[in-house]
Amino acid sequence: MIGGQPQCWIELGKNEWKIYISLVAVSLFFVPAVIIALCYTIIVHTIWSKSKAMTFSSSSSTANTKSKSTKNKSTSDPNHKRQTNNSNDNNKYADTDNDFKRASSRGIIPKAKIKTVKMTFVIVFVFIMCWSPYFVWDLLQVWGAIPVSQTTIAISTFIQSLAPLNSAANPFIYFFFSTHFCRNVR
C-alpha cells in the first residue's frame, strides 16, 4: 500500500530481473525486428527479381514480335490473315506483347510498388529507432552498465517516452506516403 492505495508490484531478485528484462527484450524487440527485416528483405528481393524477369521477357517478346511480323510479311498471299484468337502460338505472343506494353507503360517496377517498399523501410526504421533505445537502455541498466544517478533517471524518462512515439509516428508515415499528399507537395 502506498498512500492508502493498493499497488501491484513484481518482486524479483537481481538475477531474476536480468533474466526477465533480457527475455522481454528478446521476445518483444529483437525477434520481431529480425522477422520484420527478413520479411521486407524477401519482399524487396521478390520485387527486384520480378522486375528483372519482366525486363528479360520484354526483350525476348520484342524479338519474337519482330520475327513474327517478318514471318507474316513474307507470305505471298495478299489476303493472308493472322489468327490471333484460335492459335496457341499467337496467344503466347499476344500475352508477352501485353506484358511488355504493361511493363513499358508503367516502367519496369511500378511506382506503387516502389512507394510501398519505401514506406515499409521507413516504418521498420522508425520502429527500430523508437524501440531500440528503450530496450538497450533497460538491458544496460539491469546488467549494471549504467550507474544510478539523477542524470540517468532523467535520460531514462526521456528514453521511455520514445517507445510510444512509434505508434504515434505511424499515421504520419502513412499520411506522408499517401498519393494525395505527395501530389500536393510536388
UniProtKB/TrEMBL annotation:
Superkingdom of this entry's organism? Answer: Eukaryota
Q: Which residues form the G-protein coupled receptors family 1 profile domain?
A: 1-174
Subcellular location, principal: membrane
- List compositional bias (Low complexity) regions by residue number: 58-76
What's one GO-annotated cellular component?
plasma membrane
Q: Which InterPro entries has this protein been placed in?
A: GPCR_Rhodpsn, GPCR_Rhodpsn_7TM, Neuropeptide-GPCR, Vasoprsn_rcpt
Q: Which family does it belong to?
A: Belongs to the G-protein coupled receptor 1 family. Vasopressin/oxytocin receptor subfamily.
Query: Can you say what this protein is called?
Result: G-protein coupled receptors family 1 profile domain-containing protein
